[in-house]
Amino acid sequence: GDESALLCVHTDCESVTGELEKLAASYEILSEDVVGDVETERAQLLSAVPGVFDFNNYYAVKYMHSHLDALVSRHPGKAETFSLGQTYQGRDMKAIRISNNVAS
Rounded to whole angstroms, how far apart are CA atoms 71 and 58? Predict the structure, then answer.
């Protein structure tokens, strides 16, 4: 009855699924190409947020908040933003919560 989440390199998936089948374990493959999925998600997020966004540069708070809001709008059941409070300058310190069930 316990569930586990496994990530495996695409070259090992066949042997991993073979072992799971030997154990008569049920499993579900959520992605055949995680790297491709991440890159697709990244491209979609970049197109949803004004300008280019990465983690190698400094961005104004409004762009970082916009990026977080775009993530939540793409995954409303798994992500939500909330405030940690305000900076001494009065700016909102927005954070993101990621969960399988943000309602709980």
Answer: 19
Stated pTM of the model:
0.50
Q: Measure the CA–CA gap between 32 and 9, rounded to whole angstroms.
A: 10
Q: How far, in Å, CA of 101 to CA of 76, rounded?
A: 10
The C-alpha atoms of residue 68 and residue 92 are separated, in whole angstroms, by 13
Question: CB burial class (10 A; 0-12, 13-18, 19+) of residue 71?
Answer: buried
Residues in the chain with pLDDT values less than 70? 1, 48-54
Q: 80: which strand partners? A: 97
pLDDT for position 83: 94
- What local confidence, expressed as pLDDT, does residue 74 receive? 83
